[in-house]
Design goal:
Length: about 700
């Protein structure tokens, strides 16, 4: 019946006169990027990005369950319709995600909701980029119907691949971009990272290679778009073996995702025992205290024959403790790690269980990246004890436990007020060594101020991959106006764009860090310049030439990258562009949406801002010029512009009237050109100051007046 309706649609459509006929292109034309241009995960945008074209493909999944009786979307994309489609030839570079953004009655003349699996359909729309994924948006202005070209007996068979096609030795392969949007099958993998709230999990091959399962289909989710009544899906237990998983491929900053579409796309083989709810009886352990570890261990298709607790001290050899069932609960097993006498001993452990069919499971599943751990301490806990996570998972050894900590508030709610759904964020540190910063969550009414020394009690939680102190039960302000811990100076290479839990970056999570002599390499880290796919983040690099992210959107300052077009040209705001530079950028190292990023707090976290060279070679100045600042007098910031006629080192400094230097705005190599610097004098008193430009064989000065 659905096909007959579409035949009528096609017949009517053929008699509609359009104002414009768009070119017919192949999916290969949209997706293909030469190997030489694939330098980052997700690659550069499509060569046809922004173009309106026609394309044909086989529908891999229908937009709704049933156009007449059940109009719930199958592949969830909010209020939009979303499908996956690929070319009939089934070759790489021939798949794409396809959406209709407006599904109201006014836009249903596209008849997009009537298409079905295995139809070959011609679509008219626009090529766009969503993060690292190329997608195709149906043209709805004017309304442009789909055209069913052919109906195949069934949807295409999936492409047979393995995890090594997407990852090698734990490193994502950039070249796997060619499978984006395509229907693939991966066999003989095991699962970890089970999420019972969303239904997602990770598949692994035992060689360090993995991929995320994405719960976008209503048949494979536990979230609100679950197709209730049509599915009984539960995510497989950690350690389960899958005979296969089929689905469409998408690309993100942290790797490749597979989206199963229809029932039968996930098939689980025999399951090993399930190990969950691992706890220890003491959150804080002193010398001489033994530690009892308990776990819930269940075998759903048999019974548990053994459970062992494996532990070691200070990364030395492992010892093994047999775990026994509690008499009162046959699913709870307990084992005891003996008491230790030495202060600051580090203990890590994991659990292994076996069932009656000799199937084994381990928790944590990947013991190379995650183990339970704690310190034996003859002193109060420090933040570094809580944050320390040496295996690469990012999880605290005190997760879900109540602790007391002391430290200096390094960012209050006036520094990082957030935006929209982004929460207020408060941070504290108890030093400036690695692991010594932590986020305080849920602070809305407590009036914490930067520089306060505080002691608080709360629960350690891992929320959105950030370790936090939450559910605070007590807070004492010990003193105020304390100096903040010095910013840890890092290179952009050290943070880079590494994946979650990478120790080189993770150890500075929630700490004040600083980059020096950086250049803006991309004014929109998530798309092209402008407001599309712009989340207030830029890429910067220092002399290491490695990009890392800076988040401009959340801080309380006036630097922006046009995430809000209303800011462009607004008085008091500075638009950061590609090629601009800073003598330093400071702030809190934050993690969100799969990326580590620097979050500057206020204007004084930005120093030595220099805009990119204005003009071209014809406008290269003939001599050094230091222009009068504007405005002058000023409060609290002013623009200082200058000209450089030849390449070389230059320095721009500010002195008080007594000749003491109060600020260094720029110090480094400069090409010929015209520049400007924003001088923020929020921290200085009113009075006369002197700006000095030092170049190759020249020194120029100008007086400037700050009036507050």
């Amino acid at each position: 019946m659905k096909f007959l309706k579409l035949l009528v649609i096609v017949f009517v459509w053929q008699f509609i006169t359009y104002a414009q006929t768009y070119p017919l292109v192949s999916m290969y034309d949209i997706q293909f990027v030469p190997d030489s241009l694939l330098v980052t995960l997700g690659g550069p945008p499509s060569p046809l990005n922004g173009d309106t074209v026609r394309v044909r493909g086989v529908v891999l999944v229908a937009p709704v369950v049933n156009a007449s009786t059940d109009r719930r979307p199958i592949v969830w994309a909010g209020s939009r319709w979303h499908i996956y489609t690929q070319d009939k030839n089934g070759q790489p570079w021939n798949g794409i995600a396809l959406l209709q953004t407006d599904t109201t009655i006014a836009s249903q003349g596209t008849f997009f909701d009537l298409i079905d699996t295995a139809q070959v359909v011609e679509f008219t729309g626009k090529v766009t980029e969503y993060f690292q994924t190329t997608q195709f948006e149906m043209l709805i202005n004017p309304i442009t119907p789909v055209n069913v070209v052919e109906v195949l007996p069934k949807r295409p068979d999936p492409i047979e691949l393995s995890l090594t096609d997407f990852m090698e030795n734990g490193v994502n392969k950039i070249g796997a971009e060619k499978y984006e949007g395509m229907y693939v099958v991966i066999r003989n993998v095991f699962t970890t990272d089970r999420n019972t709230s969303s239904g997602t999990f990770k598949i692994n091959d035992g060689q360090g290679n993995s991929m995320f399962m994405y719960d976008q289909s209503g048949y494979f989710t536990k979230r609100g778009h679950r197709l209730t009544g049509l599915t009984t899906y539960e995510p497989p237990l950690d350690g389960s073996f899958l005979s296969h998983i089929r689905g469409a491929i998408s690309t993100r900053t942290d790797g490749y995702y597979i989206t199963p579409l229809y029932p039968g796309d996930i098939v689980t083989a025999a399951a090993p025992p399930s190990i969950s709810s691992i706890t220890r009886d003491l959150p804080v352990i002193s010398p001489g205290q033994a530690v009892q570890v308990s776990a819930r261990i269940v075998d759903f298709d048999g019974f548990v024959t053994s459970a062992k607790l494996k532990y070691r001290v200070n990364m030395n050899q492992y010892f093994e403790v047999n775990m026994t069932k509690l008499p009162s609960d046959s699913t709870t097993f307990v084992g005891t790690i003996p008491a230790l006498s030495g202060d600051s001993s580090f203990v890590d452990y994991y659990i292994v269980a076996q069932d009656n069919e000799n199937r084994n499971s381990v928790n944590p599943q990947d013991t190379t990246r995650s183990r339970y751990h704690y310190f034996v301490l003859n002193r109060p806990l420090r933040i570094s004890d809580i944050q320390y996570s040496p295996f690469g998972s990012g999880f605290s050894g005190y997760n879900n436990m109540r602790v007391s900590l002391s430290g200096i508030v390094t960012a209050d709610t006036s520094d990082l007020p957030g935006l929209g759904s982004t929460p207020l964020r408060v941070y504290m540190q108890d030093g400036n060594g690695p692991w010594s910063g932590i986020q305080i969550n849920g602070i809305t009414t407590l009036d914490l101020v930067k520089g306060q020394n505080i002691t608080l009690s709360g629960k350690v939680m891992e929320s959105f991959d950030v370790t936090r102190i939450d559910s605070i039960t007590s807070l004492i302000v010990n003193s105020s106006n304390n100096p903040l811990p010095a910013a840890v100076e890092l290179t952009t290479r050290e943070i880079g764009v590494v994946s979650n839990g990478t120790i080189a970056a993770e150890k500075y999570e929630s700490m004040i860090i600083k980059y020096s002599n950086v250049v803006v390499t991309d004014d929109n880290a998530d798309g092209n310049s402008g407001t599309v796919n712009n989340f207030g983040e830029i890429f910067i690099a220092d002399t290491s030439n490695i990009n890392t992210r800076v988040e401009l959107q959340d801080g309380n300052h006036n630097y922006h990258n046009t995430w809000d077009s209303l800011m462009i040209g607004m008085p008091g705001f500075t638009q950061v562009k590609q090629g601009d530079s800073f003598s330093s950028l400071s702030g809190i190292l934050y993690y969100s949406f799969s990326n580590y990023k620097l979050a500057p707090r206020k204007a004084d976290d930005f120093t030595g801002y220099v805009s990119d060279i204005q003009g071209n070679n014809e406008l290269v100045p003939e001599q050094y010029v230091l222009n009068q600042n504007y405005p002058n007098p000023f409060n609290p910031s002013t623009t200082i512009s200058f000209s450089v006629p030849k390449a070389g080192n230059i320095k721009v400094e500010v002195f008080d009237i007594l000749g003491s230097r109060v600020a260094e705005l720029f110090n480094g190599y400069s090409n010929p050109g015209n520049y400007k610097i924003i001088f923020d004098a929020s921290a200085y008193t009113s009075g006369m100051y002197i700006v000095r430009l030092s170049g190759v064989d020249v020194t120029l000065t100008k007086k400037i007046l700050l009036l507050k």
